[in-house]
Design brief:
Blueprint (H helix, E strand, L loop, with lengths): L2 H11 L9 E4 L4 E4 L6 H11 L4 E6 L6 E6 L4 E6 L7 E2 L7 E6 L6 E5 L8 E6 L4 E4 L7 E6 L6 E5 L8 E6 L2 E9 L6 E7 L5 E9 L2 E8 L5 E5 L8 E6 L5 E6 L7 E6 L7 E2 L7 E7 L5 E8 L2 E8 L4 E4 L7 E7 L5 E8 L2 E10 L6 E6 L17 E11 L2 E10 L7 E7 L13 H10 L2 E5 L9 H4 L7 H16 L4 E11 L1 H13 L5 E5 L5 H7 L2 H11 L5 H10 L12 E6 L7 H12 L5 E6 L9 H18 L3
Parallel strand pairs: 33-34, 33-35, 35-36, 36-37, 37-38
Antiparallel strand pairs: 1-2, 2-38, 3-4, 4-5, 5-6, 7-8, 8-9, 9-10, 11-12, 12-13, 13-14, 15-16, 16-17, 17-18, 19-20, 20-21, 21-22, 23-24, 24-25, 25-26, 27-28, 28-29, 29-30, 31-32, 32-34
Amino acid sequence: MRKITALLLLICTALPLFAAVNERVVNNGQLILQDIPEVPLSLAARVAQYQNVRSATFQDWTEDGSGIYIKTRFGNTQQIHRVRQPGGTRSQLTYFSEPVGEVRGQKSGRHVAFTMDRGGSEDSQIFLLDPTTGESTLLTDGASRNRILLWNHQGTRLAFQTTRRNGKDNDVWMIDPANPENVEPIHESDDGAWWGPGAFSRDGRYVLIQQYISVEDSRIYLKDLETEQMWLLAGSETNPSANRIAAMDHDETGFYYITNSRGKAAELAWKSLDRERPPIYITTDIAWDVTEFVLSDDGSRGAFITNEAGISRLYLLDTDSDRFEKVEGMPIGIYFGLSFNPDNRRLALTMNTPQTPSDVFVMELGKRPLRGGPLTRWTYSEVGGLDTDLFVVPEMISYPTFDMDGEEPRKVPAFVYQPHGEGPHPVVVYIHGGPESQYRPAFSSTFQMWVAELGAAVIAPNVRGSVGYGYDYLSLDNGYQREDAVKDIGALLDWIAQNPNLDANRVAVYGASYGGYMSLASAVHFSDRLSAAVDVVGISNFVTFLENTQDYRRDLRRTEYGDERDPEMRAFLQRISPLTNAGRIDVPLLVVQGENDPRVPVSESVQMVEALRQRDIPVWYMNALNEGHGYDRKENRDVFQQAVMAFFSRYLVN
């Protein structure tokens, strides 16, 4: 047992098992802690190494294409920085107490548009930054939710998604940043769906608009801003499929998009603006999902990323021939944020591996579209003095679950982080949110802290309903099949019990958002096989969640979980909700919440905590008054991570 774990055990075991609620407030009155022990300075200092890991993500090129804008944190929150050369100084441009959200450089201009909310409310406002002077100007009304920024090619108009009209619907509007009072709707929504801008034509007359109804049904429209006509180009009500805008082509005869309309993996395709012409499927020889595509400004080349069993692969595309080639020699990791610079000779991307945090790399490109050149690292993010060569690289496994896939037992993919040394090791099962998401083996200082300091193995399963494994797998948790995903966790507990290097008597579950629901549901069904559970901003009751989540996302969530207004579905949702079954939970819980959460309201956590305390179940509760759906501020994340360490030390590893 490591010294840090022994210290935590000494502290935690000194507490009474069923103490009355003991509340204290930290971080200038913004973080409320109930029944959570104080962490000694010695522990905080050791854990601080893991908490002082930084990252840098590419946001855009500077106006002349010689430098880049990134987001990184040097204080408490992520802010905009400029880097002028590989390994150059990260010059900070914004200094807000709130974290910066989206960042989009102005086309044909020097300004930068960005979003920022207050206290995690997600009511983001749009600001215009002059990087020369550092001055920022508010463009939006200060009250509505504004996001999904898209500049036209002239840099004279900015399209965005907003709830400004009625606070409920996701409309698409357009603003003149030079005269913010000149703002008008492009498309007004009345169906509860997600609508957002996707791509402008080069002359600014046309804009592609994305409609998202569900993970299985999304459509693409073209809007003529002069005639105000709009017509459907991809997707349909009668034959739903997922279709995502990638780019308008250079000669404006068609557009690139990512689609699973043929019932296969998500493919890169090109579609004419002529509605009668069928699409051309480009990546027919690739059996994996295309996750991202970018087109160079001159239209001569493209680049796209695939997700191959959780690992990213980068490809270059010749748009004249539709030929593509994989870029060889790339590090194994996860890539995102592709962007060609203005002269189309450089390709920027953010790269993340299990042993390195996100940093920005730039590839020099040859004259030929398929010729990839040297890859140069532009940012070097700090890792708190840790030796990342000692970090555990996860192993990808699959385990059999309770049902069949044809004639064979269905397999659930998972990533396993095994500690060094002999077992059996305690286990933390990490369940991703979404639900239509996917755990991928990204850099995680938190996982490595659990592995190194607690000696715990970490297993991250992609239970049914996860993306990346085909449409059938994605739909297996829909509607009345919701608890089949929970059964996949039960099957994982069976697999752990059969692995001699893992300790089936010391297993905890951890999840956030939908993963928080999964953590609570696992505690309902498997309390006799678990030692502890952590619920971060999780759903405790589907009915109250659907009734209280923000108006602009309610219909989207009904599509995923079911419509609580239907009596039969309402009864089902009530029956499977963890709150309804709180009497079956018999493991200690750590519940973490943000007061301003617009997605999973704070009431979801409060009602769960109260129900468990009535039964004298040990509950540690944390609520940040200046956070929303998760903790963005470093001072809150630090206390949260220390509390998780103390919680696992008391209830898991001892």
